[in-house]
Design goal:
It is built from 16 helices and nine strands. The N and C termini lie far apart (about 40 Å). The chain has a six-stranded parallel beta sheet, sandwiched between helices. With about 375 residues, it is α/β, with parallel strands linked by helices. Helix 1 (about 40-60) packs parallel to helix 12 (about 285-295).
Length: about 375
């Protein structure tokens, strides 16, 4: 999403006629973890990654429309086996970098918060909404951790993302892009509520959903995400940030499916730039997964100005999670959004890049559980 800063110059400086719109695909080399994690932990970790990669392969063989909720994680498929064998070890990062204090290696009993009783929570349903270019696949670690803590988790593939079969270039509005999310909320029972977690441009999508279905959303979590105010677009937000490192223009590749004389229809991300821009603290295996799974970002929804009212959007409890090593949405821009529209609470993931579900999965899990366990807000008399 941070790639969109220089979009406003796209019409005045169109791509060269000889330039091909699609991004050149390059794959990163995965690094394998050494000993210390145990054979069983490595097996679980590899199963989770394989489950996520299988979704990408499934897209290539799909002929029908694919949308709605993600099939969650491998933990669902192996539920019966898990009940017989007892709790399986939690997947851990296979990064070869030294672990920082921002994501301490917790013992399973600490991570699972075994005294947590999800039956007493306001809601135990958590809906994960990916950012621009991502898909439900990016949450595979978070899904597994939350489910093992007793939550019901749904990761949504937005229109034209993940394994959703729609053409990204044909998405013409934010409501169309967010339709899988709003359809899911519409289908909830009258008494059901959820916690929405939006990453990156997913923040604009959950804002749209909060305006449409405020009674269905118990809490909204903006994870290094676009937390906008009424009448503003994601593009407006990025105009506040001056690019000083030159990474954004180098990473952008605009797609003009309607012709070079028309506005862009999508934005591709140069695969050679994604590590430094998005995954500068993430394990190599996750960078490799992203390099073969990310899809173009639809341009029209990014341009659309949100309509947010105090009665609907403003009635939902909001939380913002900062990521301190983020090169896509820098910390200063995250703090600016919080200053313009203060949430109930700001939490921080130290040492996290723009993909905390990869770089700080354990710290992210702990933060989401902390938010989920906050008691319901007292109603005004």
């Amino acid at each position: 999403m941070g790639l969109l800063l220089s979009c406003m110059s796209c019409q005045s400086a169109p791509a060269s006629p000889t330039q091909q719109p699609p991004a050149i695909r390059r794959s990163s080399t995965s690094s394998r973890r050494g000993g210390g994690g145990g054979a069983k932990a490595m097996e679980i970790d590899e199963q989770a990654l394989a489950a996520a990669a299988a979704l990408v392969l499934g897209q290539r063989h799909s002929t029908g429309g694919v949308g709605g909720a993600f099939d969650r994680s491998a933990s669902v498929r192996y539920a019966a086996k898990r009940q017989q064998q007892g709790p399986a070890p939690l997947p851990r990062s296979s990064s070869t970098r030294p672990r920082s204090l921002g994501d301490p290696e917790l013992q399973p009993q600490q991570l699972l918060a075994k005294d947590l009783n999800t039956k007493n929570l306001e809601t135990k349903i958590i809906v994960l909404v990916h950012g621009g270019g991502f898909g439900a696949w990016c949450w595979y670690k978070t899904i597994s951790l939350l489910e093992d803590s007793g939550f019901k988790v749904n990761a949504i593939d937005l229109t034209g993302s993940g394994i959703h079969s729609s053409d990204t270039n044909k998405i013409s509005s934010l409501p169309e892009y967010a339709e899988p999310l709003t359809s899911y909320l519409k289908g909830l029972g009258d008494a059901e509520t959820v916690i929405l977690v939006g990453h990156d441009f997913g923040g604009a999508c959950i804002s749209h959903a909060m305006e449409m279905f405020p009674s269905k959303v118990a809490k909204a979590v903006f994870l290094c995400a676009t937390m906008l105010t009424n009448g503003h677009s994601a593009l407006d937000m990025f105009q506040q940030q001056v690019d000083t490192n030159g990474m954004l223009p180098r990473a952008q590749e605009f797609v003009y499916s309607n012709g070079k004389d028309r506005p862009p229809t999508a934005i591709n991300i140069d695969k050679a730039s994604i590590r430094d821009l998005l995954f500068n603290q993430s394990p190599s295996k996750d960078v490799s997964l992203a390099s073969v799974s990310m899809r173009p970002i639809p341009f029209a929804p990014v341009m659309e100005k949100l309509v947010l009212t105090e009665e609907n959007y403003g009635s939902v409890r909001r939380f913002f999670v900062e990521t301190t090593e983020d090169n896509a949405i820098p910390l200063s821009l995250q703090q600016s959004m919080c200053a313009n529209s203060p949430p109930e609470k700001v939490l921080r993931l130290k040492g996290s890049d723009h993909a905390p579900f990869f770089s700080r999965p354990q710290a992210l899990h702990k933060t989401l559980v902390e938010i989920a366990t906050l008691p319901p807000a007292a109603k005004a008399s």
